[in-house]
């Protein structure tokens, strides 16, 4: 048997080619696996970005809603305070459904012996306090209803 360098070189070349193809197959499988993992991570990242963008939009919407109803509440309180000042200054009068009590001295004229209807100072103050609380409650309820419609029911 004759030793052939050509056959040995061809055999070594064949072994190297098989080894290189297996190595290429291994790295190709790893590359495919890495690409699919990267695709999955990118999808999750996009979902997180969308979620963050949605949360930021909702925060802006809630802040605008809060500002709107806070302004309405401040306006209502300012109106009530102005009304209270006007009543105290005599520019406006509260309309009451009241009966007049008799004054202490009887009169000989044909007029009734009644004093003018008037709330006591405490009742007048309580009226404005109650009116303010009603306004606050109604504005808070309206704001919460709007919040539920715009944010919770989406």
TrEMBL record:
Annotated coiled-coil segments of the chain: 38-93
Record Pfam families: Phage_lysis
Domain of life of the native organism: Bacteria
UniProt cross-references to InterPro entries, sorted A to Z: I-spanin (IPR004929)
Name of the molecule in the record: Lysis protein
Keyword Coiled coil in annotation: yes
Keywords: Coiled coil
């Amino acid at each position: 048997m004759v030793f052939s360098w050509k056959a040995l070189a061809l055999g070594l070349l064949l072994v190297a080619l098989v080894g290189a193809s297996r190595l290429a197959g291994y790295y190709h499988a790893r590359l495919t696996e890495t690409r699919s993992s990267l695709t999955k991570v990118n999808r999750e990242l996009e979902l997180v970005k969308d979620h963050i963008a949605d949360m930021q939009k909702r925060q802006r919407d809630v802040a605008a809603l809060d500002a709107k109803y806070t302004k309405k509440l401040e306006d209502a309180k300012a109106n009530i305070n102005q009304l209270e000042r006007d009543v105290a200054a005599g520019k406006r009068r509260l309309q009451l459904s009241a009966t007049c009590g008799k004054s202490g001295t009887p009169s000989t004229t044909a007029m009734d012996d009644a004093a003018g209807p008037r709330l006591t100072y405490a009742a007048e103050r309580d009226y404005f306090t109650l009116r303010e609380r009603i306004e606050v409650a109604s504005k808070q309820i309206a704001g919460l209803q709007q919040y539920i419609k715009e944010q919770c029911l989406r």
